[in-house]
Amino acid sequence: MKPDERGRFEQATLPHLDAAYNLARWFTQNEHASEDIVQEAFYRAARYFRSFRGGDGRAWFLSVVRRASLAWLEKQRMQAGVAFKEDVHDRGDETSNPEILAIRKSDDEIVRQALEELPPELREVIALRELEGLSYQEIAIVIEAPMGTVMSRLSRGRERLQRRLSRCHEGRTT
Amino acid sequence: MNCREVRQLLSPYSDGELTPDQDAKVEQHLLECEECSQQEKSLQSVRMAISSAALYYEAPASLRQRIEATRLPIDRGGFRISLQWVTAAAGVFLLVGASAALGMLWPEQKPTADDELAHLIVANHMRSMQVDHLTDKESHESQTLLSWFQKKIGFSPLIPDLSQVGYELTGGRLDYLPDHPVAGLVYNRGSHVVNIFTWTANSFEDKPLTRLVCQGFRLRHWQRLGMSYWVVSDLNDQESDKFAKVYERYSRKILPLRLRSSDVFKIP
Ligand SMILES: [Zn+2]
């Protein structure tokens, strides 16, 4: 890569380093791997830079980060002997103990924990929407799925959080 | 709009992602229906809780330093040339493969052309294993797939029937490397998926079998009669070798019977 090309590439990607790390971190939930993944994505994105048609590099770069994160997750699951499934089955009334959770932890930590308990497919869309502020269309580009999928995953993720958090609050007020 | 329909649209409604028509209908309903309105408030408070909690992970300084130190891949022109000295560096690939435990590339290690290619091949392989991605054309018939590839990309890989030796032909798929399209041929052994990627090579010299490991997958690569072959799967080393050998052996058998040489030997 020639110096001026590297410059253009860095302009398109470096401003989104926080977004990239935040996505990898929420998607994989692994602090150490997230750094590796973003570095790997940065490298891979350089390979495909010619396919980037200018404009906002964020969704484009995040889609590369997301792929690298997915590859990491798939590898983890394969090593654990579990095939990766994009399908999310709703565990509805999963058991948890909100009272214990609510006693010592601040609100922030309860919210964080609720988000961490979501499956990665729901967690990533929530992170992209609520923390990154991406539009549905941008999220669709990042996760390489139709808008309808973005919409339904967001709905499901929020419903679960709603259930989870309202239980926490009930637990705390008693 | 009834309550059930409205509930399903509350999430996109709160994001302002509904059509103006839908948006107006939901809004109207919320004015009239106490329960749905309550639900909407609850959704808002959850959204507020998430976005106001300190949940954002900023990139650590160590990552920024690593990124700045990352040596980026040479551009496509250089890549094409570097493919020529591929065999000479075979020893280095194995070293790189073994030391990059997570399949990550470190700035200190200069990745070789094969190593870069292996990453792309593995990415294609993994993508193929996602839902509904395995084949574009599902078939157990060599002849069917052969014509399909011919029509789609103007050449076809050799497609031997390997069912006698335990590999079921599953189908074909079109994939892309940065430079060109590649034919992806899929065999199955039990629950293992074996992908063979082939394309017309840019040299006519034969290259012996090369072994690589990338992100936990085993790769076998060779070149013969102007075609480049990459096999990737989660089979172990021994089985990967066996598959490559069997594929080659059976390909030789069918070559004179089913294919005109011009189909196989097409050189750009
Ligand atoms: Zn209602």
Summarize the SSE layout with pairings.
The complex is a heterodimer of chains A (174) and B (268).
Chain A: H1 3-13, H2 17-28, H3 31-47, H4 57-79, H5 98-104, H6 107-116, H7 120-131, H8 136-143, H9 147-173
Helix pairs in contact in A: 2-3, 2-4, 2-7, 3-4, 4-8, 5-9, 6-9, 7-9, 8-9
Chain B: H1 3-14, H2 20-32, H3 34-52, H4 61-69, H5 76-82, H6 90-99, H7 113-128, E1 137-138, H8 142-153, E2 168-176, E3 181-189, E4 192-200, E5 207-214, E6 217-224, E7 227-233, H9 237-258, H10 261-264
Helix pairs in contact in B: 1-3, 2-3
The structure holds zinc ion (ZN).
Could you write a compact summary of the structure shown?
The complex is a heterodimer of chains A (174) and B (268). Chain A is built from nine helices and no strands.
> What average pLDDT do the residues of chain B reach?
78
Mean pLDDT across residues of chain A: 80
Looking at CATH, the homologous superfamily of the largest domain in chain A is: RNA polymerase sigma factor, region 2, helix turn helix motif
How many angstroms does the end-to-end distance of chain A come to?
62 Å
CATH fold topology of the largest domain in chain B = Phosphorylase Kinase, domain 1
Report the C-alpha radius of gyration of chain B, rounded.
Answer: 26 Å
Oligomeric organization of the protein chains: heterodimer
Query: Structural class of the secondary structure composition of chain B?
Result: alpha+beta
| Helix percentage of chain B | 40-55%
Order of helices and strands of chain B: HHHHHHHEHEEEEEEHH
Shape of chain A: globular
CATH superfamily of the largest domain in chain B: MucB/RseB, C-terminal domain
> What's the total helix number of chain A?
9
Which hetero ligands occur in this complex? zinc ion
Domains counted in the coordinates of chain B: how many? Answer: 2
CATH fold topology of the largest domain in chain A: Rna Polymerase Sigma Factor, Chain: A
Coarse shape of chain B: elongated
Return Rg of chain A in Å: 18 Å
Beta fraction of chain A: under 5%
First-to-last CA distance of chain B: 60 Å
Strand fraction of chain B: 15-25%
